[in-house]
Design a protein that fits this description.
mainly beta; 7-stranded mixed beta sheet; single chain
Length: 117
């Protein structure tokens, strides 16, 4: 059973930065998109940013200009650099990797990000 292991969450003041990292516990083949999602208390899980295996990125409006996704599908790693953090960014952040064959969604266990003074 492959696991995605996230790290880098924590408590940060408004305006601060955090870098989240995610890596697979063993090799995952045929990844076509990797991404980060988040879920705040009482809300649905939402997309933050994605990156395809050829490097095409997509961001939620709330993340544009502040967050940067990077990674390597072949190495099964994906990071999320978060700058200018706001209290509304507080959530559990989940790493995701999708494969073409077999068709599968891999999820991490989540890492807590809290933005508070």
């Amino acid at each position: 059973q492959v696991q995605l292991v996230e790290s880098g969450g924590g408590l940060v003041q408004p305006g601060g930065s955090l870098r989240l990292s995610c890596a697979a516990s063993r090799t995952i083949f045929n990844i076509y998109v990797m991404g980060w999602y988040r879920q705040a208390p009482g809300k649905q899980r939402e997309l933050v940013a994605t990156m395809t295996d050829i490097g095409v990125t997509q961001y939620a409006d709330s993340a544009k200009g502040r967050f940067t996704i990077s990674g390597d599908a072949a190495k099964n790693t994906v990071d999320l650099q978060m700058n200018s953090l706001k209290p509304e960014d507080t959530a559990v952040y989940y790493c995701n990797m999708k494969t073409t064959w077999p068709t599968k969604d891999h999820w991490g266990q989540g890492t807590q990000v809290t933005v508070s003074s």
